[in-house]
Amino acid sequence: MSYDSAKAAFADWGVDAEAALAKLAEIPISMHCWQGDDVVGFEKKSGSSGGGIQATGNHPGRARTPDELRADLEFSYSMIPGNHRLNLHACYLDTDQNPDRDEIEFNHFAPWVDWAKDQGLGLDFNPTFFAHAKADDNLTLSHPDAGIRDFWIEHGKRSRDIAAQMGRVLGSPVVNNVWVPDGYKDTPVDRFAPRKRLELSLNAMMGMPHDKAQMLDAVESKLFGIGVEACTVGSHEFYMGYAIRNHTLLCLDMGHFHPTENVADKLTSVALSVDEILLHVSRPMRWDSDHVILLDDKIMQMAQELVSADLLDRTHIGLDFFDATISRTAAWVIGTRNMQKALLRALLAPWEQLKSAENQLNFTTRLVVTEEIKDLPYGVVWEEFCNRKSVATGKTLADELVRYQASVEARS
Ligand SMILES: C[C@H](O)[C@H](O)[C@@H](O)C(=O)CO
Ligand SMILES: [Mn+2]
Question: Are the beta carbons of 135 and 146 closer than 8 angstroms?
Fold first, then answer.
């Protein structure tokens, strides 16, 4: 089918395919650096991921240096239509020096900023509160030892300063997202004290105001992690309250809730109380929160909520998955394109007609329309988008992904 015929098929439902393509082109996705090297980072003394997050698998081709990671990213972005962002973790510094976490400075990340500028990419940032001896108890900002808390507070302060400077140089606000692994393997007798300590540490860390045109604070909750099954200090309720009271972004990671919860359903509830939202789009499976995202119902529901509720302008879409059993570049490319495909489908839905049927309690029409539009030629519109952006699709894409993977397989 030609694009013109597909456009006409959507027009029959009152949908403007051109407008959908124009909107999709404006939506940046923040691709996470840590898919490229299994969350190892480039510190001289880093260990395993820790903090209850773990990349499993030993597929060849893991990026071992910042240059290798940037080469993999450049290839991946060339396979993804549109202009996007890179989400960097503090443990991905690029320097000959060996600063501890409480010593990091902007210059340790300057090569990333120069590269991002060169590539026309925005950056986002995260302090790294795991994979460090002072996080071995799975307690950081809520640790009972004030010295350990102070160490992590200093790391968090420096991360905010670095993020703000990145935003200033790049002319685009950097979302600085705080996730801490803090929690308990077995049932604690006191859940209140660590939550009070976490609150005070966050306050100390985020006390210094920054220009929102340069840096935006975000906080990320979690239900549980490996080794912290009984209690996570930074639970959803904890951070929801914190974000509302302190006017930060709230990060909703799709892998951080009970598997039967619909994270898409949370968007509009949260949007009534916080100005902006950060998404970590992910795919939980049993104990794991981080499988590569598919074009599945959960991702499509998330995209539908963003479009239907007009939340795109105040939601920052980030990805969070890591799979070391497959080509890491293919994981980035397929996952990011799936997020875009879900958004495109949502942008191509006849929302006015659907909302009008729902408002009239005409649930039959709502059902008929939602089911019939599933047969529309979304793939043709997606192909047109990729063609306009000079990005491969189908068999050509598959061949390119295999070719690039073969070129990095010799890395040990
Ligand atoms: C590496 C990230 O900070 C991490 O994945 C975090 O966002 C998370 O989701 C932890 O489970
Ligand atoms: Mn996350």
Answer: no
CB atoms within 10 A of CB 56: 10
pTM of the predicted protein model: 0.97
User: Residue 375 domain-assigned?
Assistant: no
256 flagged as catalytic: yes
CATH number of the domain enclosing 280: 3.20.20.150
Least distant ligand from the CA of 223: 1
Active-site residue 332, yes or no? no
Q: Are 65 and 95 in contact (CB under 8 A)?
A: no
Ligand 1 pocket at CB < 6 A = 34, 39, 53, 89, 126, 179, 220, 222, 253, 280, 289, 320
Burial of 245 (0-12, 13-18, 19+ CB in 10 A): exposed
**Is residue 9 domain-resident?**
no
Q: Are 36 and 77 in contact (CB under 8 A)?
A: no
Q: Where are the beta strands (DSSP E) in 221-270?
A: 231-232, 249-253
Question: For the complex shown, is ipTM > 0.85?
Answer: yes
The count of residues in the chain is 412
Tell whether residue 102 is among the known ligand binding residues.
no
Identify which ligand lies nearest to the alpha carbon of 124: 1
SS3 225: strand
| pLDDT tens sequence across 13-34 | 999 999 999 999 999 999 999 9
3-state SS of the chain: helix, strand, coil percent to 5?
Answer: 50, 15, 40
Task: Name the residue range of residue 178's domain.
Answer: 24-349
